[in-house]
Amino acid sequence: MTTIFSTQRRKNGKGAKRRGRNRFLHLCAFAFLCAFALNSNDVSSAEPLSFKRDIAPLLLNNCLACHGPKKAEAGYRIDTFERLTAAGDSTQPGFVGKDLEGSEAFRRITSTDAKERMPLEGDPLPAEEVALLKRWIEAGVPFDGPDPKASLASYIPPPTHPAAPETYRGTMPITAVEFSPDGSQLFVGGYHEITVWNPADGKLVRRIGGVGQRTYAIHFSPDGQLLAIACGTPGKHGEVRLLKPDSGELTKVLGMTSDVVFDCAFSPSGDRLATAAADGVVRVFDVTSGSEQLTITSHSDWVFCVAWNADGTQLATGSRDKTSKVFDAKTGELLITYNGHNQPVRGVLFHPDGKEVFSAGSDNKLHRWSIAEGKKAADAPLGGEAYKLTGAGETFLASSADNMVRQFNAKDQKQIREFSRVKDWVLSTAFCPTTKLIAGGSFDGQVYVWNSDDGSPVTSFYAAPGYKPPQK
Question: Is the link from the previous residue into 119 a cis peptide, with omega within 30 of 0?
Answer without folding.
Answer: yes
